[in-house]
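Page 47, continued from p. 46.
Same chain as before, 378 aa.
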Amino acid sequence: MPDVLIHGDTFRSPELRHEVPIGIPDPFLYAEVGGVKHIVIGSLEIPRLRALGAYEIHPTEEFGSDDLVAAGLTFHEIADEIVRRAVAALGVTKASVPDDFPLRYADVLRGSGVELETDYELFDDRRRVKNAGEVAGIRRAQRAAEAGMDAARELLRRATANGGGLAVDGKPLTSERIKVAIAEAFVANGATAEDFIVSHGPQSAVGHDMGSGPLQAGEPIVIDLWPRDNESACYADMTRTFVVGEIPDELLAWHRLVKDSLDTSFALVREGADCRAIYDASCEGFEAAGFPTSRTKEPGKPLEDGYFHSLGHGVGLEVHEQPGMGRASQSTLRAGDVVTLEPGLYRPGFGGLRLEDLVLVTAHGAENLTQYPYDLTP
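Result:
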């Protein structure tokens, strides 16, 4: 196993949060040397880290921080020198680093003769199989997602057509109003989200259009939620599609095909299953019904309708991580992976329909972590 260096904070670095499962807002150095985990950090965070009992803790004073301050060095000069001295003291001469390892520290260390290798596969692999704390956090995030979906569905259930759109309690029902209700539900369930999708009508045919404006009766309303659990920093991800009022025949047909694709995909999820093969199976029903997919599109030209995206992706300390579940995937599933299954159909100018579940791969098959109805009617 190679020596490893990571530098960052545990809010923005998923690689570091996987190794140090508490929130630390200021950057610090993490090193694995000969299988031993070391942390170089200021005194503020040392008591919490010691309580975890998993690391050799090195206060910055161990590497002369007081002398560097007394010598009049700047904050950044001190930080650079602490990293250089610590890595030398730990005996690291060659290390693997994540692809977002800070360039300034890479320059300092390479200038001191340390060989650094960016190894994204190593760090992706370390995070793929979720530990118990991460699985628990994903479950909590998923419950928060479902609470958010409940809040949205409650507004949609109460909505009535007012001639110019939908209204609730005499006020226009907009994507923004629904987002407020969803965000409040997240907070009440120990989660947060910077943004999420409440798109409708033609917006819902545009990938990650976050959605805006007043909703209409009879149009697709795609709600895609990925809250982050506050305790673990792990995400969930789920999507449902609704229609208020009469459901167009086209959407009814799409819903049957999308739900069949979701069911077909879920049935194939198990340890050792080929991700590309599961994606291929998710395409077959759409293609048989005459819809284009990424498998059948003209090479070199983007696909804007039909099933134009992958089946899904891994979820954990990032909302999009390995393994990929698309036509470029070369991965097989492992027990402990958490992946989304999210087939959909889209037509520009009209809208889209997507259903997404979050699935835990187990040694004996799969567990659907999403416990939520699929009905188009709210």
